[in-house]
Amino acid sequence: MLKNLDKLLQDKNIRPTAMRLLALEYISSQQTAVSLSDLEAAFHRADRITLYRTLKTFEEKGLVHSIMDGTGSVKYALCEEGCECAPEDMHVHFFCNKCQETICLPKSRIPKIPLPDNFKQEEVSLVIKGTCGSCS
C-alpha cells in the first residue's frame, strides 16, 4: 500500500516524506472527508502546523480538494484520478446532519453556470444537507 502511495505523491510532484505518506494513507483509508482535527486525532504526536502544511501541499498539487460544508471546519478528500479540481471537474458533496460526516458524490457533477460578462469564477461549491444512509 505504501509503495502505491509513494508513487501517487511522486506523480503529483510531492516529495514523499514519512508524514506525507502517513497522512495520505489515513485520508485514503477514510470513507468520508477529513478535517485537520481528524488528522490531529489520528496522529496525536504530530505537529499541527506540519499536518496543516501537508494538507495544503496536497491541495495545491491537486491530490485532495477542500470542502466547506458549513460546519466551520474545512474538510479534505482525495481527488479522483484524472481530476484537476477545476470547476468543470467539481462534484456535489453531502453533509449528514446526524453523524456530521461529509461525503463526496463524484457522479453528481456541478453544472457550469454561465456568468455575466466581466465576472470571473474563482470557486464552486454545492453541499446537500440531510441524513445519510447509515443514519436513516
Which features characterize this protein?
3-stranded antiparallel beta sheet; FUR; zinc; 136 residues; 3-stranded mixed beta sheet; alpha+beta; WH_DNA-bd_sf; single chain; DNA-binding transcription factor activity; Arc Repressor Mutant, subunit A; zinc ion binding
Helices and strands, in N-to-C order?
Answer: HHEHHEEEEE
Global structural class: alpha+beta
Label the overall shape: globular
Question: How much helix is in the residues?
Answer: 25-40%
The biggest sheet, with number of strands, parallel, antiparallel or mixed sense and barrel status, is: 3 strands, antiparallel
What would the CATH topology be? Arc Repressor Mutant, subunit A
β-sheet strand percentage: 15-25%
Count of individual helical segments:
4
Query: How many beta-strand runs?
Result: 6
- Biggest sheet, spatial arrangement of strands: 1-3-2
Average of the residue pLDDT scores:
90
Oligomer designation:
single chain
Report the span from N to C terminus: 33 Å
The CATH C-level name is Mainly Alpha
GO biological process, one term: negative regulation of DNA-templated transcription
Organism: Pontibacter chinhatensis
Cofactor: Zn(2+)
GO molecular function: DNA-binding transcription factor activity; transcription cis-regulatory region binding; zinc ion binding
